[in-house]
Amino acid sequence: MSDANETLSNLAHENRTFAPSAEFAAQANAKADLYDQAEADRLGFWATQARGLDWETDFAEVLDWSNPPFAKWFVGGTLNVAYNCVDRHVHSGHGDQVAIRFEGEPGDQRNVTYRELLGEVSKAANALTALGITAGDRVVIYMPMIVEAVVAMLACARIGAPHSVVFAGFSAEALRSRIDDASAKLVITADGQNRRGNVMSLKPAVDEAVASCPSVNSVLVVKRCGNDVTWGEKDVWWHEFVESQSPEHTPQAFDSEHPLFILYTSGTTGKPKGILHTTGGYLTQVTYTHRNVFDLKPETDVFWCTADIGWVTGHSYIVYGPLANRATQVIYEGTPDAPAKDRWWDIVERHGVTILYTAPTAIRTFMKWGDEFPESHDLSSLRLLGSVGEPINPEAWIWYRRVIGGDRCPIIDTWWQTETGAMMISPLPGVTATKPGSAMRALPGIGVAIVDDAGSPLGNGSGGFLVLTEPWPAMLRGIWGDNQRFIDTYWSKWPQYYFAGDGAKFDDDGAIWLLGRVDDVMNVSGHRISTTEVESALVSHPSVAEAAVVGAADETTGQAIVAFVILRGGLEGADGTSLVATLRNHVATEIGPIAKPRQVMIVPELPKTRSGKILRRLLQDIAEHRSIGDSTTLADPAVMNLISAGLESSSTDD
Ligand code: WTA
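A: This is the predicted complex of the input protein with WTA.
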């Protein structure tokens, strides 16, 4: 655990605390007694949360943990997720409330009420059925941030067809492997998306992927940008096919453990893991956390989560949590700098956003751009700010609070993962006196510990591995098609705990500080990318013999990808500069632009142990311009000198 120890020793010392104002505390949804309730009767507490949803059949048992790590929550209960997110709000008299305030990047706007959303979801559900999709069939969604993406997800949920949303920035190859792994029958996409003033076409990647995926019977295409598309026999236009369907659809209730979605995330090997989530427990926890952590007031709040639906944050806090709580929310299609660097603040002002949920990488980018952009807008509607995706450094936290939050908004730093499905560690905004940079403590109902290598729980002032000590309702139910990998990855280091892969520390007051990943997973702008995935992409290029990839600290993106590459014999004399550019682009083509290395360094050797394991720690020292650490376990200690000498003479970036 030497790498982890190094990370753990880099703990920020932060003594400032910010208690909620008396006004905020008085009106908060969650009061301190929530912790007491959960502590007194954890399962009873979760049953109460679950019963806030509409069940067709009540559950007979809260948790079946007789076959760990395979949990069953709310056993015997049946419900429909889309009904809970849409129909029930219309039935309770809120059909005219706006559910989605959509804003396209070019400035087009569309308000969708809950009644209209019900019609759209019903038509889409009928369309999916007409395309032969039945409960249990997998549907891949590869779409921009538009209303139809939300409608597509809800339509799948409505008919019990698990969706697998693939981030629209992923390459055709990444899309193909995900369609293939899930044997999806249908792909829902769009012609293109608006990005930074340009139309980026999406359909060609789908065409390429589907060409080698025999499981796919149809491709449903939303016309978003009107760009030219190639049309094949499997293709169906959304505006023709979905629009012609009946807006009536009777939802069917599904078992609490019916699969709701698969979402692929990077693990420590090259093959992404299809994280499986199910129905009742997931919806319970996203709804509970969304209501209590964001303090949502459906009558008055305008909620905005800036994530993409391609990530779990978009699933849990754009689609399922907010809609189950009858939120009114903003969805924005484009980038923060289109047409200018004040776009987000312009959106906050015009839509009167009250709750904003975003990522530290975005906050640091805005810090860099300068205070004048937020300061040119009236942000006084904001009353709560959230952060997710990576540790937020105290400077960014303080800036967020001061410049965006006007020193009046509580900040909630929420720790969770694709695997946890919903928030696990976070302040309660009306209760917790927060420390800048700390996610503070486990939410009521959640069990967290920090343990040493032997699995022994550590006390205040000690750093170690973050584990979850109790099953939780939104926990992943497995890895699609690979239960052994599920057990090996999360439950084998200490069988009694879920191992999250993060380092953490309790400070002297018992507040939790997250310290980043302790495995070979990088966190680039809040996106998880495994070092192995990028290495496999690099070695798939004909000129690369071997590659080692590390995440190096980066001021804006948290970590940046730095690759060390050995070229194949005969190519070593090639023009290094253009090859570096070629390799960076090759990774973007193989995985997607988010995985493009910041730097590719051509080296003559890689540092390896006698058993052939690459010592990434030493490469990280180089990437972060530190003096090189302990290299005594290297098979050939002279290698590091060779690498350093080679770098001085080679160009490392384009
Ligand atoms: C990291 C995103 C520190 C962590 C919801 C975790 C965080 C991984 C935080 C999951 C936070 C997420 N503070 N680190 N508030 N939130 N992380 O699956 O390393 O995309 O394991 O889920 O992001 O990333 P994922």
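The pocket of WTA is lined by residues 265, 311-313, 388-391, 413-418, 439, 500-502, 514, 517, 523, 528 (CB under 6 Å). Residues 1-12, 649-654 have pLDDT under 50 and may be disordered.
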